[in-house]
Write a structure and sequence with these properties.
The complex is a heterodimer. By secondary structure, chain A is an all-alpha fold. Chain A has a domain at about 265-485. Chain A has helices at about 5-10, 10-30, 35-55, 70-95, 100-120, 125-140, 150-180, 185-195, 205-220, 230-235, 240-265, 270-290, 295-320, 325-350, 365-370, 370-385, 390-405, 410-435, 450-470, 470-480; strands at about 60, 65-70. In chain A, strands 1-2 form a two-stranded antiparallel ribbon. Chain B is mainly alpha-helical. Chain B has a domain at about 285-505. In chain B, about 75% of the residues lie in helices and about 5% in strands. In chain B, strands 1-2 form a two-stranded antiparallel ribbon. Classes of the chains: A mainly alpha, B mainly alpha.
Chain lengths: ~475, ~500
């Protein structure tokens, strides 16, 4: 370890220090919410600065176990934005329920640190450790509402299935290590390329591939490994759900990029059919089940499964020979972050008063009761549907374009994705129907959210709009980040 | 650098929507008048454009091009030919009429309504002027959202079912169209050595198609996707089932725009994009489409006869009338083409007027059941006269514009398929049957008990209602007597369309 290694991972170091600082501030000044918010958000700002300073540079640390490249920078920024928005949304939700903000913020920042570490990992072992660092705090967050049985149930399911899938992933990594003799991504790539060139793929490698696919599919909530998602999403405190729906998902795709695209790139012809089937099953099942949901959180949970399916189309397009598939995945991740967190934020705003459910009836007449909140929710839902000119539209368009470019079976997959998107319109617009076309319910009278909350909501809204009107701003970054390894 | 008149026309309603958005929602009068003002400005601008338009040359005029997403060659590119300008003027005309016609009926959430309507106008104009496939697609989708809200919020009792059906039908078509557009652009990119420049540019793509560069497989698949999207919108049999529901539940002005402009988006898409870009596929599927068109013409008319609801009757008659449009497009000759486009304009004017008239009686009775009407002429003579005029126009009375369009389609298609043409012309008899029978039941005979029970509520048309209908009536007469006003505009587009459609074998 040298000082330059520390410099390379400076954003991660700072993030860990910020999380620690939040806890210390809470100890030194108990009950000072503002101090915690300043420390955590200010600290995340520092992390963002540290990441941006690195932008454009490349390098590696710890003997090439960690790489700094455009992909790392892009994902790191995304993680910081996710953390900052989650903290902004959480304050209004946690306080009325008597849940501690400091622990929440600290645990969240630790989780995001894991995500940032995943983004830069170019070593199979480090990848696994980083993954665990990302998901373990996630289990804690899911069960954050200690006295709520649903929260506990969701957290336990999430924990059990999550640990299970981690073990499976690790098992798969062990196979790869056993066969290639190295844990470094570039080493694995070289060994596999040689093996492919000689036509000597060992059966054990196929086993390893299967285990790794299953493990990663669990993390990204792809069908048939999605069973933990609805309960974990519905049971978790809503701001946590907002985080879980984007943070670990993007983390899982970061693993997919480093592992499948990076290390297992030479085998892409072998994992392509698997990804196609996974993508098709994931988006179709996710959408079909989402249609039947009456709870908006649960509906968005199934919808997030469906979006995993769309993102997988991008991965399949890469395996089909299109580099633009990677860029499409990254764009999708960024767009999805803003629109999905925004949607969950609106639910959070409605639930400021404890006891308000996330049933769809809560949304009845929202467009009239609170025009701004209603309009924003409509914006996020239309974007999730994929209506232009909003972020979600371009996300879908780029993925579809990459698939069409790859041709063959992927064209069929693109058609299936669009049929799915049309079906998805039903359940997204159903919420709009409740908001604008039904009379207000007595149940929920939204109280005006706090200033910080509104800043976060505005961020989500502006992001959804700007990504939609000027997608070229983002594609410049995603294109640069799509070339790594 | 000329004045960006097309952008100006498109932006005017958008600015109007923004202005309305910042007005206080309590003052409905100002909101209504502001919306009307901006719609009128867009209308005047479009008329000025029509006056300045050069009839002779082929190609697109008043083009504006700005790079939007250079990495994929996506541009903000707009321009008009004779077909586009007609559709734009039809849109701006019906838009202000619809907004004015909403002054009375819409009393709830006026602000949201007017914003929706103005944004709807932006989308509709955009579709007709876009010369970049991506831009076209975006405007196409923008149309969807306000219409969804207009039907869903201000519609009738069964509005939510109707609006969801409308949206889902449309989205299935349009999302598949997106795949087809991307596949087409990619084929162009591959054909140009991997450069995206011009890949979404309609003119470049049309040029590429004209020289036979799109493979037959691509043409077949992409054409089917575009055809599905457009056929749903037209709507062609058997994709028409959303239409009666949407029309019946929409507020009056929503029905007017739906029939007057939204259905034209589909026909316009077929003419502008589906046929010129995929001529081989267009010819391959021409016969099935002609058969579907005739089925729509006959089926729509027969089903209209048995309708008991005024709006539903007019809605089904739209299926029949729009069948002439698709028939005229796919027989591929100049006369039928001109007839088809004229029929698009006529249908917009006549059916728009009929929906306004149904709205007038609905405002007073809150009922649209034909059986409960009767003897309206004795109490509302002005109304009955105008209603009768539009009925005759819709039935294709010579001297009014409805006749000319259908007649040209008939003449044009006779050479290619006499049997088909004959079958479709018989429908003009059916049309007279259902329209005149409906008119007789509503207007003549003794005053029905239901209407008599309304007493003094049943007043004749007021001034606002007259103002909305008279321009349409005047246009119907003028175009009936001087169809060459429109046909001259269409000579160049017809030639371009046929040239593009003929590029099959190369």
């Amino acid at each position: 370890m040298s000082w330059s290694d520390i410099g390379t991972i400076a954003p991660i170091v700072i993030a860990v220090l910020v999380a620690a600082a939040v806890l210390i501030v809470d100890m030194a000044m108990p009950g000072r919410r503002d101090a915690i918010l300043v420390t955590s958000l200010g600290g995340l700002g520092l992390v963002a600065v540290a990441i941006l300073v690195q932008a454009g540079h490349s390098g590696s640390a710890f003997g090439a176990a960690y790489s700094l490249d455009n992909l790392t920078v892009f994902l790191d920024i995304l993680f910081v934005v996710i953390a900052a928005m989650t903290i902004m949304f959480a304050g209004d939700y946690l306080e009325p329920r008597g849940l501690p903000l400091a622990e929440f913020a600290a645990v969240l920042i630790f989780a995001v640190t894991g995500g940032m570490l995943v983004a830069g990992s170019t070593d199979l072992l480090l990848l696994f450790v980083a993954l665990e660092l990302m998901v373990l705090p996630g289990y804690m967050l899911a069960g954050f509402a200690r006295n709520d049985p649903y929260s506990t149930e969701g957290a336990i399911k999430y924990f059990l299935l999550g640990s299970f899938s981690s073990a499976i992933l690790l098992f798969g990594l062990a196979y790869v290590w056993g066969i290639t003799g190295t844990t470094r991504v570039d080493g694995v790539t070289a060994a596999l390329a040689t093996a492919v060139a000689h036509g000597s793929i060992q059966p054990g490698l196929a086993m390893g591939l299967a285990f790794m696919t299953a493990g990663v599919a669990f993390k990204m909530a792809a069908v048939p490994f999605h069973y933990w998602t609805p309960d974990a999403y519905q049971g978790s405190p809503t701001p946590v759900t907002a985080y879980l729906s984007v943070g670990p998902k993007i983390g899982a795709f970061a693993i997919a990029l480093r592992l499948f695209v990076g290390a297992l790139g030479p085998l892409k012809a072998d994992w392509l059919p698997v990804i196609i089937v996974l993508a098709a099953a994931t988006m179709t099942l996710g959408n079909l089940v989402a249609i039947t949901q009456d709870n908006v959180k649960r509906m968005l949970a199934y919808s997030s499964i469906a979006h995993t399916g769309y993102i997988l189309v991008g991965l399949a397009a890469y395996a089909g020979g299109q580099q633009s598939g990677i860029s499409a995945i990254l764009f999708y991740g960024a767009a999805y972050t803003f629109m999905n967190m925004g949607a969950f934020a609106v639910i959070t705003a409605l639930q400021r008063r404890p006891g308000v459910s996330s049933q769809i009836s809560t949304f009845a007449g929202l467009g009239r009761r609170d025009p701004w909140l209603g309009a924003l929710m409509a914006l996020f839902l239309l974007s999730l549907t994929g209506i232009p000119p909003l972020a979600g539209f371009w996300a879908k368009a780029y993925v579809i374009l990459a698939a069409v470019q790859a041709g063959g079976w992927l064209t069929a997959l693109a058609v299936l994705a669009m049929v799915n998107a049309a079906a998805a319109a039903f359940y997204y617009l159903r919420v709009v129907v409740y908001m604008y076309m039904r009379e207000p319910s007595e149940e929920a009278v939204p109280s005006r959210p706090g200033a910080l909350f509104r800043v976060g909501l505005a961020m989500a809204g502006v992001g959804t709009l700007i990504f939609g009107l000027f997608p070229a701003l983002v594609t410049a970054a995603t294109n640069a980040a799509s070339v790594f390894h | 650098m000329h004045l960006p008149i097309l952008s100006l026309i498109t932006l005017t309603p958008l600015i109007g929507a923004i202005v309305v958005a910042v007005l206080p929602s309590s003052n409905q009068g100002i909101i209504r008048r502001t919306a009307l003002f901006f719609a009128l400005v867009a209308w005047v601008l479009s008329l000025l454009l029509l006056a300045a338009y050069a009839f002779g040359p082929t190609g697109f005029q008043y083009q504006e091009t700005t790079d939007w997403i250079p990495a994929f060659g996506i541009q903000y590119k707009v321009g008009i030919d004779g077909l586009s300008i007609l559709m734009v003027v039809l849109t701006t005309t019906l838009s202000w009429i619809s907004i004015l016609a909403s002054f009375g009926p819409i009393k709830d959430r006026v602000k949201g309504y007017m914003i929706s309507f103005l944004i709807l106008e932006v989308g509709m104009i955009g579709v007709f002027i876009a010369l970049d496939l991506f831009l076209f697609y975006i405007f196409w989708e923008i149309v969807l959202v306000p219409m969804y809200l207009i039907i869903g919020i201000w519609g009738g009792a069964n509005r939510i079912y109707a609006t969801m059906k409308f949206v889902l039908y449309t989205l299935v078509g349009s999302l598949l169209m997106l795949v087809a557009i991307l596949a087409t652009a990619y084929a162009y990119q591959v054909g140009h050595g991997g450069s995206w420049a011009g890949a979404f540019d309609f003119q470049a793509l049309a040029q590429f198609a004209a020289t036979g560069h799109f493979s037959q497989n691509l043409q077949i698949l992409a054409f089917l996707a575009l055809f599905l999207a457009f056929a749903i919108k037209v709507p062609m049999f058997p994709f028409h089932t959303w239409l009666p529901d949407a029309h019946t539940e929409a507020p009056t002005a929503g029905s007017v725009i739906l029939a007057g402009v939204l259905l034209k988006l589909g026909a316009y898409g077929l003419i502008r994009f589906a046929v010129p870009l995929y001529p081989y596929a267009a010819h391959t599927f021409a016969w099935p489409i002609i058969v579907l068109s005739v089925i729509a013409i006959v089926y729509g008319a027969i089903v209209s006869i048995v309708q008991t609801d005024l709006k539903r009757l007019v809605a089904y008659s739209s299926v029949s009338h729009m069948g002439f449009v698709t028939l005229g497009i796919f027989v591929f000759n100049a006369t039928a083409f001109q007839g088809a486009v004229l029929q698009m304009v006529n249908h917009g004017l006549i059916t728009g007027g009929l929906f306004l008239l149904v709205g007038v009686i609905y405002e007073r009775t809150h009922d649209r059941t034909i059986a409960r009407m009767g003897g309206v002429a004795s109490i509302m003579p002005v109304y009955a006269t105008i209603f009768g005029f539009f009925i005759l126009a819709s039935a294709g009375l010579p001297g009014l514009s409805g006749f000319v369009g259908e007649f040209l389609v008939f003449v044009g298609s006779f050479g290619m398929a006499p049997g088909i043409a004959a079958a479709s012309i018989i429908v003009m008899v059916l049309a007279a049957t259902y329209l005149l029978w409906m008119f007789q039941r509503v207007a003549f005979g003794p005053l029905s008990d239901f209407l008599a029970g309304l007493g003094s509520h049943l007043t004749d048309m007021n001034r606002t209602e007259l103002i909305t209908l008279l321009p349409l009536a005047v246009l119907i007469v003028v175009l009936g007597l001087f169809p060459s006003l429109v046909l001259d505009l269409l000579r160049a587009p017809a030639q371009a369309f046929l040239t593009a459609a003929a590029a099959v074998g190369r």
